[in-house]
Amino acid sequence: MNCCIPASVLAFATCGCASSHIASPHKWHFTVEGRLASVSAEDIAQVVAVMDDLKIYRVRVIDHNTVEVDTRPDRFTIVPLRGPPQVQSVSYAVVRRVHGVWKSDEHVIHTF
User: Is-above-0.70 flag for pTM?
Assistant: First the structure.
């Protein structure tokens, strides 16, 4: 019986020290698509913070340092001669990681 108590304390202390504090998953009301393995949930949270109070409809991860954020629900479809149709946004912001900080440096608006 006395052997079990120190073993329990050691197991509890080891598990407590080995676990790292991970932020709880964010619940966003938009889809995140593209190269998801290139960024973390914390990166997406920082991109959302850069967008301030703008409504976000979709986030597309282009690469480790570039994300496109749809700021309007309107979309259009491009049907190329070869390959599958591509859905493009009417309006989106390009957010880039510059020296470890996410910044929105351009806004693209498609006109017809």
Answer: no
